[in-house]
Design brief:
Oligomer: single chain
Mean pLDDT: 86
Order of helices and strands: HHHHHH
Structural class: mainly alpha
Helix content: over 70%
Low-confidence stretches: none
Number of helices: 6
Shape: elongated
Radius of gyration: 24 Å
């Protein structure tokens, strides 16, 4: 019961962040640039714009969060969100580059929020659908079918009389 409520609640932040990244990528691209641009140069992708990466990341985040919220494939969606959040943790809040102590503290708090969301995505990826749960569901289904067969057999027997 709680899982069905928790997944959409967790997904809301990811959907919101993804929409913001798609609609207004400039601010996020500016924050990520000190980490992303040197990495792009190192792998020979100088032509790729950081804003385009932010938009693509946002669209992927929206898609994965929507799948998580709908509980279609929560483990897969959780893993995808964890991967996307790991990128966000690494690139969007480089508090260690800040010189101003007040800004550094603010950026570190936001960094830790992203780390917490990463943990939530990992929990979403690992929660539910365990082999034991599947076994219990299968046993319950078999028991219901056996009961249904017994009722049908009893009804057929009473018709013969």
């Amino acid at each position: 019961m709680f899982r069905h409520l928790a997944r959409p609640l967790l997904a809301t932040w990811f959907v919101y962040g993804g929409v913001q990244s798609v609609l207004e990528p400039e601010k996020r691209a500016e924050r990520a640039a000190p980490v992303v641009e040197p990495a792009l140069k190192e792998v020979g992708l100088e032509d790729v714009e950081t804003t385009d990466l932010v938009k693509a990341h946002g669209a992927a985040t929206i898609a994965a969060a929507t799948v998580l919220a709908l509980s279609r494939t929560p483990r897969t969606a959780g893993l995808v969100l964890a991967g996307l959040t790991a990128v966000t943790v690494a690139a969007s809040r480089p508090f260690w580059l800040e010189k101003d102590e007040e800004k550094k503290e603010e950026q570190m708090e936001l960094f830790l929020k992203n780390v917490s969301l990463f943990g939530g995505a990992l929990l979403a990826a690992s929660a539910g659908h365990s082999p034991r749960k599947k076994e219990r569901a299968k046993a319950k289904k078999e028991k219901a079918q056996a009961k249904k067969d017994a009722v049908a057999a009893k009804a057929a027997k009473s018709k013969k009389k």
